[in-house]
Each structure stands twice: as C-alpha cells, then as structure tokens.
Specification:
By secondary structure, the chain is mostly helical. It contains nine helices and no strands. Helix 1 crosses helix 2 (35-42) and helix 2 (35-42) crosses helix 3 (46-53). The longest helix is centred in the middle third of the chain and has 28 residues, at 56-83. It is globular, with a radius of gyration of 19 Å. It starts with 9 loop residues before the first helix and ends with a helix. This is TetR family transcriptional regulator.
Length: 195
Amino acid sequence: MSIARKRLNPEESRSAALAAARRLLLRDGPQAVTLKAVAAEIGRTHANLLHHFGSAAGLQAELARSIAERVTGSIGEAVERARAGEADAGDIAEMTFDAFSSEGAGALAAWMILSGNRDALNPILESIRDLVGHLKVGHEDRHVDETTLWLTLLALGDSLLGPSIAEALELDGDTARKIAAKRLRSQIEHAHPRE
C-alpha cells in the first residue's frame, strides 16, 4: 500500500527541504546534510531535491544563506537597539556566538571549507557584508568592519574549539562570550555615550 504524499509547490518544497537540512545539521552535524538524507527526512526523492538545489553543495549553500540572513537580520536589529541605548551590547555578542554554535553556522562553514566547497560560503559572506554596509550608514568612522571581523572570528573559533580550550585553561566554557560582550559594550558605549 502506498502512502499519498501532499503535493507541494516549488517554494514549499524548498522551504521544507531547508528546514529538514537545518534539523539534520543541528542534530547530526554538517556531514549529515546530504540530498539523500534531506529527501528521506521530508518524504521526497533525491531527484526532487536535485531539481531544486542542483547538488548537495547547492543545498548547503542555500542552508548557509537562510541561516545567515536570519541571524544577520536579528543582529542588525540588536545593534540598532544597543546604539539607541535600548538593549545591551552583550545581546549582540550572544546572538553572534549563538549563530555559530547553536544555529550550526560554525560547523557548516568549517565543513564547507574542509570539503573544498568554499564557494558555498559566499551567502554567509554576502549577508555579513550587507549587514556591515547597513550598520555603517551614518557610522563610517566607527570601525564597524574591524568590530565585525573580530567578533565573527571569535564566535567562529569558539564554536569549533572554545569549550575545549577553555577547559584546558581551567576557564568557564563561556569565557570567550563574556570577553566579547565586555569588549563590544565598551566599544558601543564609547561610540554612543549616554547623556
């Protein structure tokens, strides 16, 4: 007896595949994000996903794009609230660190680089570049580029090695997050003093 599958329009099919890919990424790691695994997760065929994404690399690039766009949008809003004194700058550091750890962007980026799929990082880099461009409007002299660089690299490194290094140094596992939040608070308070 066959089970009837609900027909999805192309956008619904892509969305379902990306949601499944994200679940696989978070549950089983980036190596689990294959066309076959995602197809099985949503009850579609490998050929169906091949049609939508072209390849596993295409699927991973779209997954990276969706994660990056969601995260950079949230971070951008948090930066604007922190500049206005309506939020703590530490929230920005937390969101950035979460993007690379609990959202899976760090593991996915490392996997893409190590598997030779550097082009799939382009969506992440484009989202970061767009966010920085937006944040620089009216703040060109505020070193937004440098702040983004150190915060991103620190969050990426922490997602891959942070807890192990912290443990080896007998530090709390969230020490890098605390350092980033403290430094970011200081930079924002210096650039936007409260009256």
